[in-house]
Amino acid sequence: MSKASPRFIYLLCIFIVVVFACNLPSATAIPPTSQPQSNSGNVSAVSTQPPSATDTVTAPPVLHQLMPSDTSPSGPLNYDVDSSGTGAQHHATGGESYDFNLFERPFTQSDMTYVPNLDITTFQLSTDGTWYYVFINLVGNNPDDPINIDYGVELNKSKDGFGDILAWAQPPYTTTWTTNGVKVYTDPNHDTGGASPERSDANTTTGAPYPGDGYETVIFNQGQGDDPDLAWTRIDPNDSSIVEFAFKTSLVGSSFLWGVWADAGLKDPSKFNYNDRFTFAQAGSPIAGNANYPIKAIYAVDNTCWAAYGFKPTGNEPHICPSNAPPPAPHKPPKTPGATPPPACQLSIAICNAKGMEFNPDTCTCYVIP
After folding, report:
1. Where along the chain do its domains lie?
2. Could you say which of 42, 71, 190, 311 is the most buried, measured as most Cβ atoms within 10 Å of its Cβ?
3. CA-CA distance, 166 to 195, in Å (whole number)?
4. Cut 0.70: pTM above it
């Protein structure tokens, strides 16, 4: 057998290398893979592929089993201060106590413009055994105000002044019951009132806020949660000045304190109570003549005292409403120019102004600014 020439061997080697290389798998030919999608719970596994412009995220559909009834406002009337009389003058008529986390601030932050849809006048609660219904009556008649107002109901099961549950609704609102925009918060670590249930716990020396986290736990989010029917909201179909809530009686039990909110300012349940996050000087005041006027860090918000449900209050409960009687008519201003207060009078202009009121030397009384 004759020897192969070097040239032939060389060409044969090149041929073998080319054929072998052509049959190797290409790295770019392997398509990217995704992690398998999990069907447990509401959270899907993350894909290794980058999202495309057409990818959309859809929440699982909410399957409701029970809806609130088409009820009408009822229950004992509880009153809040109506600031419409002095709104055009850019101040409240009273009804605020910063030390007690009670706000009467239906005004914008920038120029103290009065917002009627933030101003609560009355609030009621009733039940049909399955649901509690809460009715928030406003001065205005458009809860879908362009300023974007959140409304809420705060519940205190233990009656100790520290809020336990907060039902909170965000716009847009409809005249039919919906869970859209509705959340329910709880406070397992019991710090919604700061160190004390009422007093501001912000540091007046340093200005530092109380380091709590308010309502930190969401147990219901627009139908997502253990009970998809837990809480609902709507505008009263017969009266657009009324915002309504409905929530299961099982949420709070049969005996509790409760109050309501209208908030277009901070809108942050994690900062409850608001007076624990700012000093009075930082928060400002809606009362003309007060040293902290006008409103500053806490703005565009109105809340109420707390009413009792299912028990007879002693009157010493934190945040408790003094009564559910209509507010007294304002005292009339003095008719005698330059009148001198009676000798036994213990009031003064300074004392009345601190309460957001005017002083009547004729009668030795404070009266609401008309």
Report:
1. 78-309, 328-370
2. 71
3. 19
4. yes
